[in-house]
Amino acid sequence: MTEKVVFINRSSKVVKGGRRFNFSALVVVGDRRGRVGIALGKASEVADAIRRGGELARNQMVSVSLKDVTIPHEVFCAYGGAKSCCVRPRPEPALLRAGRFARFWKPPA
After folding, report:
1. CA-CA distance, 64 to 84, in Å (whole number)?
2. Three-state SS for 94?
3. For the CA atoms of 69, 65, 58, 30, what is the dihedral angle to 10 degrees?
4. What value does the mean pLDDT of the chain take?
5. b/e map of 13-44 (b: 16 or more CB within 10 Å)?
């Protein structure tokens, strides 16, 4: 299993004694054989939020069709009147080619 933290968010709440912080972590989990899960874990500590996100993502895994090691076709996203390509299949050595709206999923080179 491969686990990747995409984004960590800190939210705060003002209470009588000061500020109370909570964290949320967006986690993507995959087995590199066509099963992927994504989940948002929330907790008062960063490590707990990442752990909970990973557990939820493992429970919510779905199968993705693969052609060799990449996806077989382009994936389009629509929001309002706009339509854009989010993810494209990619020749070797990379696995995916991220579109403009999916750049945050691209692993660092």
Report:
1. 20
2. coil
3. 10
4. 82
5. eeeeeeeeeebbbbbbbbeeeeebbbbbbebe
Give tens-digit pLDDT for 50-93: 999 999 999 999 988 887 777 888 888 887 888 877 777 776 66
The one-character DSSP state at 101 is: G
**Residues 6 or more apart in contact with residue 62 via CB below 8 angstroms:** 35, 36, 37
Between CA 20 and CA 6 the distance in angstroms is 23
What is the pTM for the complete model shown?
Answer: 0.71
Q: Write out the two tokens for 20.
A: 């109370």
